[in-house]
Amino acid sequence: MNHSAWRHPLLLPLLAGLLLRLAAALYGGGYLMHDDHFLVVEAAASWADGEDYNNWLPWNQKGTPQAHPANFAYVGSQYLLFELFHLTGPHHPSHQALVLRILHGLYSLLTVVLGYMLARALSPDCKQTATTVAWILSASGLWPLLSVHQLVEMACIPPLMLGFWGLVRSSRLQWQDILIAGIGIGVATGMRYQCGVIGIALAPVLLAQHQWRALVGVGATALGTFAVMQAPDLYVWGAPFTQLRGYIDYNATHAGNFPKGPWYQYLLTLLGMMVPPVSVMLLWGAFHRGRSAPDIWWRVVVPIAGFLVFHSAYINKQERFILPVVPALIVVGWIGWQTWSQRSQWWNRHRQLERGLWGAFWVISSVLMAASLPYSGKHSRVKAMEFLYAQGAENFAMVQVDSGAMPPQFYSGKWNSYHIDNRREQQRPPLQVAKTWCASPPGFILFQGDRHLGEAVSQYKAAMPGLRYVTTIAPSRTDRWLHELNPINSVERIMIYATGDALPCP
Q: Looking at the DSSP assignment, which residues form a beta bridge with residue 449?
């Protein structure tokens, strides 16, 4: 019997990565950011239910249809999964969300494998280098948590890593390398448009290396793959690349509404994400390789640099935007640091210090990972919708006090438009508000807020004494902690009242 597979250096990192991702999927939940849920899960699940939650599709829009500013390709893949759930189960929304997290976690293990392969190609003489990279990508920091959620910035990483691997398989790119690189970059761009910057930044590298055929081949393959992934536009919109044009138009006209930051914001993000002071070592290693670097090195480093420069110059700054290139950056950073430090007399005299810094990295990363595994994002919002699902509620009202956050209706199992009283913008008498609900009376009222929640509840109870208190859902400790770190992360309690016959309806 051949036992070589059990001795493969990838085995233990993959097993660790699998167990950690299963833990994050099973013990965590909810969603991390607005877009990963409302532009992916809510859209895809509603389509499978015969609805169109955000009026994405042109036949559900009034007037002249406008292309939705999100990418259809990734959302479409999730729609197919929900259609499969309808056929085979599970049918409970929370169980469907669990399966999605598990599937995304399994898919993310490709990043570990491809990170190892990329490191082996860039540093063929040292297997330990590739093994270290695999451990970092599988079992450090926030990677297990991020891997199980529906973030398109995470979903595009495996094909992008495949593209990088194709670029470094040989000094003179052969047709197999060209196909792998082109397909990988094309798929990544089809999922996340900004990955196209990788291909653009690669062009001058191949030109400088006099690889004309490779440049044409990679470009044609990437563009062809991208076009195939955008083909659903022909069915949905009747014209090619409609979603891409909609994305560009939206970003051009809504630039003033985007989160802003200084040009160096992503540098700070990388320093924090990769855990200092090791993050400093990795960045130094990636971009200080020097003239001795082989040709294949620049095919990875220059596109990464181009991606970072593009996002640093662009007005919309959100930390998740740079996630696609972080695994490749870790690979070249670790290899580059080793190459440089081995030539440094100072570091050769202080190897104990270097080992201590890496020890600190693993301690800090392990603490972050352990703290993040049970994270249930937007806990109160999700649990409130799960409560409605358990009650079989057909309709509900939401009174927003300190927060205007949208309820994740996917977890309620219903797509009916809910009634809303946004008291942050206009405080109307509760009876006046409730009378507008009578056409479709809500069975429950959800009071959403924090500091001023009790005041709003008291006003409604005074106007409608028949309201019956049911339960209060508190935010998770992590949601509270994130709010304290950055108040832009809204946090709220949700108090649920049954309406009974308390509404002022005939």
A: 493
